[in-house]
Amino acid sequence: MKHINLSYLSQLSTGCKLPALVIIGLLSTVLLSGCATIKLGQSYDKPIQEQVIEKGKSDDKVLIININGLLSDSPKTGLLSTAPSLLDSVMMQLKKAEKDKKIKAVLLKINSPGGGVTVSDILYHELMAFKERTHKKIYVQMMDVAASGGLYIAMAADHIQAHPSTITGSVGVIIINADLSGTMKKVGAEVNVYKTGENKDMGSPFRQASESDKQVFQGLVDQMANRFYEIVQTKRKLSDSQMAVLKTARVFTGETAVQTGLIDSLGYLSDATKKACKLADSKDCKVVTYRFTENANATSYSPSMQANSSDQAWKILDIPMLDQLKLKSGMYYLYLQ
Q1: Residue 309: its pLDDT value, please?
Q2: Which terminus in the chain has less CB density within 10 A, N or C?
Q3: Using CB atoms within 10 A of its CB, is residue 53 exposed (0-12), middle (13-18) or buried (19+)?
Q4: 3-state DSSP call for residue 135?
């Protein structure tokens, strides 16, 4: 019985210019013959390892943690493996960073339109708890988008910096549900519903929302929005008149966000690593990330916690979908782009 590691086949596909579908055919032949077992995809059970991205003159470190994409607690599933959810990934890195006394600051590189209300709140809570336990500083660098839930988690930072072209803001909550009742009538279809309470099927796409449904939904939205408003106003020390602008849930460029008091400064990632080090009363810090697999060519702009390249040869089989088209039922701190 032989064991085949798929990462080797991925390299074979790249080096020999063999199409991924040819490799799949070979794998199928081997499997059907019963003479081999195959280890599929990246393993996420092994410990994450530190990688130095920029060398410093001191032993003090700034750790970059990427928060990229929709904020979710759902594992990232692929054809060959299942990767940790964004929440799990961040928590893994915070757990490791907490034990390293040489890490003086964590730089959150946020590129997210937000996500679930609960996940956003958990991340904010865990970041605040991490700061309280370790006394390490948190510095945020906003990238393309850091809106709604992406902004919510940034409120845990000691300093928030954005690019001039960053899109941020969207302070608010949204619930979206489809109404297919008109279409059902046109095609002559009906759905029978048996329920115990008036609002049990609120949000159903098969009927129009009643006034009672709308009041309940709006009450939920208002309650969650008030929590968001309170955190933003408290952490950013904003006046009621400043909050009135933010409560429109509009978005701002980084430049305008500074003027509204939503963020502290404008700059780039190369500035942020140095400023994070200084914020922690350190000098000439190393810049590090955590990874499952080392990337010898990595820079501060490279994704951390990246999957092994063995998954890449199989992207031909993936059906690309926008994350926002896969939203589950629930409330979201989310900027719909």
Answers
A1: 40
A2: N
A3: buried
A4: coil
pLDDT tier at 296 (50, 70, 90 boundaries)? Answer: confident
pLDDT confidence of residue 21: 55
Q: Which residues make Cβ contacts (< 8 Å) with residue 239, sequence separation at least 6? A: none
CA distances from 113 to 50, 165, 334 (A): 28, 15, 6
Average pLDDT over the chain, rounded to an integer: 84
**What's this model's pTM, rounded to 2 decimal places?**
0.81
Q: Is 109 a catalytic residue?
A: no
Rounded CA-CA distance 335/163 in Å is: 18
Q: Could you tell me which residues come within 8 angstroms of residue 226 by beta carbon, excluding any fewer than 6 positions away?
A: none
According to the model, what pLDDT value does residue 93 have?
96
Q: How far is CA 109 from CA 21, 289, 304, in A?
A: 36, 11, 10
Quickly count: other Cβ atoms within 10 Å of residue 146's Cβ: 34
CA–CA separation, 295 and 334 (whole Å)? 32
Structure tokens given for 8: 């080797």
Catalytic residue among 200, 214, 315, 326: 200
Is residue 200 part of the annotated active site? The answer reads: yes
- DSSP type of residue 71: B
Catalytic residue among 89, 148, 304, 310: 148
**Is the pLDDT score of 57 beyond 90?**
yes
Dihedral angle, C-alpha 211, 213, 216, 221, nearest 10 ° = -100
Q: Residue 282 and residue 241: Cα distance in Å, rounded?
A: 37
Q: Residue 295: which pLDDT band, with cuts at 50, 70 and 90? A: confident
Tokens of residue 324, six digits: 């926002």
Q: Which structure tokens are listed for 215?
A: 């009041």
Per the document, the length of the chain is 337
pLDDT of 227 strictly over 70: yes
